[in-house]
Amino acid sequence: MNKLMKKTALATCLAISALSLVGCGGWMKRTAIDTTADWMIPDAMSAFYDEPDFEIARAALPADLKLVEGLARANPGNKQLKVLLSQMLASFTTGFVEEPYSPEEMPSPVTVQRAKSLYLRGLDYGKEALREKKSFSEALNNHRLDDFEKSLSSFSKEDVPGLFWTALNWGNLIMLSQDDPDRLVELPFVAAMMDRVIQLDESFYYGGAHLFFIVFHAGRPSTLGGDPEKARQHYERMAALSGGKFLLGDVYFANYYAVAVQDEALFRKTLEKVLGAPLDILPGERLTSGIAKRKAKSLLDKTQEFF
Question: What CATH superfamily is the domain 79-201?
Answer without folding.
Answer: TRAP transporter T-component (1.25.40.920)
